[in-house]
Amino acid sequence: GAAGGPDSSVPQDWEQRQEEDTLLIERILLLVRNVLHVPADPTEEQGVDGDASVHDRVLWALHISGMDDLLKFLASAQVEQQWALHVLEIISLMFRDQSPEELAALGQGTAGAEHGEDTRELETLRQRELAEKRARALQRPSRHSRFGGSYVLQGLKSIGDRDVVFHKGLHNLKSYTHDLGKEPRRLPRHRQA
Which intervals hold domain Timeless N-terminal (predicted)? Predict the structure, then answer.
């Protein structure tokens, strides 16, 4: 205005909000809460299956008007904490007819369907890989060869001038004696101590 008064087209600063504005906001929130609080009447709402109920149509009207964005702002803004309980009540009434399972499934939407498809695809690949592994296992000889290799022990002479040939695994080398693999001589019973 020309007289220096507050211009009605300019949004007011939160600190300069008048008592009337606070009352108006509270009345609007209470009106929305009361409209959403009206219980469903099945005798009145005899529509075809799949028709939007009155509650759903009210929610759609709130969405089209931008009221849901305003409620999100009021719920998350630090300076608007005085409206938190009103907003919480309105949000709980918005989801009144919904079960948590349905809401979670809707939230996943196409992403959930794609995830399920990916899981099925991965399971198919895993089954194919397991089948290939089994086929390879069947082609392999089933008996394990116990041949651990032969080693020549240089500097340790056997009968003649040749080096000792050791047929056991290298881990058995510490316990090597010339008697390895020979039958122990048995003493007759009357000669035993």
Answer: 12-152
Q: Which two tokens stand for residue 170?
A: 């290298």
Going residue by residue through the chain (193 aa), what tens digit of pLDDT does each one get? 444 444 555 555 655 667 788 888 889 999 988 888 888 777 766 655 556 778 888 888 888 988 888 888 888 888 888 888 888 888 888 888 777 787 777 766 666 667 778 888 888 999 999 999 888 888 776 666 666 677 777 777 777 777 777 666 666 666 677 666 677 788 888 887 7
Could you identify the residue written with the tokens 């969405």?
Answer: 63
Question: Looking at this protein, which amino acid is placed at residue 124?
Answer: T
What are the start-end ranges of the E strands in 20-179?
Answer: 151-157, 163-166
Task: Give the position of tokens 């089994």.
Answer: 134
**Cα 179 from Cα 187, distance rounded (Å):** 17
> Using CA atoms, how far apart are residues 10 and 1, in angstroms rounded to an integer?
11
Residue 90, number of CB atoms within 10 A of its CB: 24
Overall pTM > 0.85: no
Q: In DSSP terms, which residues pair with 165 in a beta bridge?
A: 152
Q: Which two tokens stand for residue 27?
A: 């009345």
Any bridge partners for residue 157, and if so which?
163
106's enclosing H/E stretch is helix 100-139
